[in-house]
Amino acid sequence: MTTSWARIGLHYAIGVLAAGQMGLVPPLVPALQRDLDLSLAEAEAAVSAITLMGALFGLAAGRWCETTGHARSLAIGLLVMAIAAALCALVEQAIPLLAARGLAGIGYLMVVIAAPSLMAAIAEPRHHPIALSLWGTFVPAGIALAGFASAGLAGMGWRMVFWLDALVLALATLAAFLSSRAQRGTFPAAPRVPRFARDDSGGDRHDMAGSLDLLKQALPLAFAFFCFALLFLALAGLLPDYLVERRGLAPAEAGRLGAVAAIFAIAGSFAAPWFLRRGVAPAKMVALGLLGSTVAAALSFSLAVPVPLEVAGFALAYAVGGLVPAASFSFVPALAGGGARGVGLLNGLLAQTGSLGSLAGPPALALWIGWAGWEKAPVLLIIVAVAGAAATLAVRRASRPPRTTSCPAPPPGGRANRPGRGSC
User: Fold this and answer.
1) Per the confidence metrics, is the pTM higher than 0.85?
2) Least packed by Cβ within 10 Å: which of 120, 144, 314, 334?
């Protein structure tokens, strides 16, 4: 099999489009509040509804995508998001808007689980780390691009923005369908065997036990990814408030500087393949990304420096932290043991833990700051980063091949190596 970089690029672009559904709404919030009479809480719920779906159903969606087939799941997910965007353009009240955004979250889950699984199938094993580290950039890239596009098109009206979004998603659905026809046979759906036709060997139970063992092995990586998402979203959500309250910036300027700093996460994620090609282990990159980004953020909070230097420090924190998602996704095929069907399950696990961290991050840091003050914010960040980095040690131990303790049989007339000596 030869790596199809064109199809990898297509699936990456689809992932960026899916992540863009999270960045599409924030620039439209003032208009939505005005036209639909939304409260601030309802507007924020419309923003976070997609993340909530991931936190609730990520693992279940991973299992469903494996059963249905990843190519089919990708097209279905895009179609669901297109329908949801069209419904958003038609709503007149808050509850239908929230329901439509929740529907978009379900489609988003299907896409972000199926797309990297297909990328792993399309790539040669030696290209897995590079292809999936590229995938690790899809969230910051999608949110940034959609945010800029939505802000630029907001003058046309929020309904027109959603109609354009639905059109782009419909075209992406067609592209995914045509691509799936070209790669038919990749990740076929698991056959549904009637209960009366199953043998007594316990195949279903063995399959479930294997899935549970795989999830248990991947839990340390999932926890590290949870810590990253918590830190990333906590910093992204609270940085503008910090610049307003502690540095005296205007809200608009603080929001702009916070967005500029966050974009640097993309640079960090794109640097990950360079480190992978030079032999840096993904688990080590996750640990370094967590610790390095937190140290940079803590110093930025603590040092009395001019605002431009402080923002540059936060940008560095985002850039170093960008290594984490790229390295995490690149590690999935190795944890799956080369089994194609395990990739979707682990992608679902990362989607769920990442969404949980995204939901927990901003309120956790806000509660901490309310109790201890801004000057103690680095303490919580460091605790979370150290916990995540420690979890990667368990990932490294789990991924090491077992040592061989027995020696091969000696050749006729030859002498066997004694244990502990020789090359065996």
Assistant:
1) no
2) 334
